[in-house]
Amino acid sequence: MSFFTTHPRAPRIGWVCTAVGDMGRQKKDWVPCDVCGTLLRFPHLMSHPRFPGEVAVGCECAAGMEGIPQYLVDQRDREAKNRFASRRNFCGLKNWTQEGRTMWTLKHLRQEYRVVKGPYGGYAASIRREGEMAWTRLEGWHKKIEDAKLSAFDAINPPHRATVEAIEEVA
Ligand SMILES: [Zn+2]
């Protein structure tokens, strides 16, 4: 049943897309649009300052809830899909180069990535953006080298992320 049928008092407009998800290639993992029921691999997660929780919808329903032109939502959808595809391929890129026993580097689309293995077995990542002289060390250690590589990817290619400002209710 549609979200707006089960939540008749929910706001119809003024929603913000906080993130776009990827449920994977398998159709059994896809989720229905909370509004129209269309099965979605890439749900747009919508939040509203006057509604608790998130609503997962497709592009058409998102445009209506956000009150923005369809092409802007489609553009966000396309960018998210491209990013997910790049992220899936990132760890296996052929030009990752091992230097010595504990360092891996990659130059890709004019950005530089580096992963080092620490003395205790974890992996840490650094990035150097195009035009920067110094490397930026990313926080944290990862158990798997893939996760360190992906943290570097995410730092250079951040996902779509919007925040919802809480609106103070006027009594
Ligand atoms: Zn829908």
From TrEMBL:
Gene source species: Cereibacter azotoformans
Protein name: Uncharacterized protein
Top-level taxon of origin: Bacteria
